[in-house]
Amino acid sequence: MDYAIKAINLTKIYSNNVIGNDKVNLKIKYGENFSLLSPNGAGKTTFVRMVSTELLPTSGRLTVLGYDVVKNPMSVRKNIGVVPQEGLPVMDLTVYDHIYYFSRLRGLAKNDAKSATIRAIRELDLVDVRNRYVGGLSGGLKKRVLLATAIVHEPRLLILDEPTTGLDPAARRKLWNYLEKVKKEGTTILMTTHYVEEAERLSD
User: Fold this and answer.
1) What is the strand order of the sheet 19-28 is part of?
2) Are 84 and 143 contacting, i.e. CB atoms less than 8 angstroms apart?
3) On the chain, which terminus has fewer CB atoms closer than 10 Å, C or N?
4) pLDDT value for 145
5) pLDDT tens digits, one per residue of 124-174
């Protein structure tokens, strides 16, 4: 069986000799919603940064959507969407321009980027703020802008690093509802969290 994510003895040792991940073995099926649940500092972010090709492993093997992250990082990046833990949107762009700009960076043609941007804005319930500058939005809305930016090109794999940290309960529930919709559509989701309730609700 092919897997969306397959890690074999995956190890990451940082330059200061701190071990981020030590011989991780993990298989995640296509269409699965998989949550990494652990306290902060346990290595969740290290793992997802290797999956997204932001970090290279020290040893072991990691394939994402059938591509080796070391040999074919660009092929991986074209097919994933990422919402990083400490990610910040571009504050001096409007919501529409922010999502459109990154859709063009993803390689979408102008007309395709326009329609994809409108679709993402509707899906994340951002229509009423589409012409507002991102810097003036609440934390929950900024997170939804990041998520809209991550899904605008319809990625096969969505990577979310503690996506609801810092959000109020209402904003958290809105994000959960959207992720449940994406899950039903067959997108593979890799999420890190330290909320047990979140992992139980969203994971397979």
Assistant:
1) 19-28, 5-13, 59-64, 67-68
2) no
3) N
4) 94
5) 999 999 999 999 999 889 989 999 999 999 999 999 998 888 888 888 888
Domain of residue 35 covers: 1-79+159-168+190-204
CA distance 31 to 152: 18
Q: In this structure, is residue 15 part of a structural domain?
A: yes
CB–CB of 89/146 below 8 Å? yes
Q: 3-class secondary structure for 2-48?
A: CCCEEEEEEEEECCCCCEEEEEEEEEECCCCEEEEECCCCCCHHHHH
pLDDT value at residue 173: 87
Distance set, CA 188 to CA 18, 60, 127, 191 (Å): 30, 23, 26, 10
In a domain, residue 40? The reply is yes
**Residue 3 near residue 30 (C-beta atoms within 8 A):** yes
Contact 130, 141 (CB under 8 A): no
Contacts of 117 (CB under 8 A, 6+ apart): 96, 99, 100, 103, 152
The 3-state DSSP composition of the chain as helix, strand, coil percent (nearest 5) reads 40, 25, 35
Within 10 A of 42 (CB to CB), how many other CB atoms are there?
15
Asked whether residue 39 carries a pLDDT value surpassing 80, the answer given is no
Q: Report the CATH number that the domain containing residue 56 is assigned in CATH.
A: 3.40.50.300
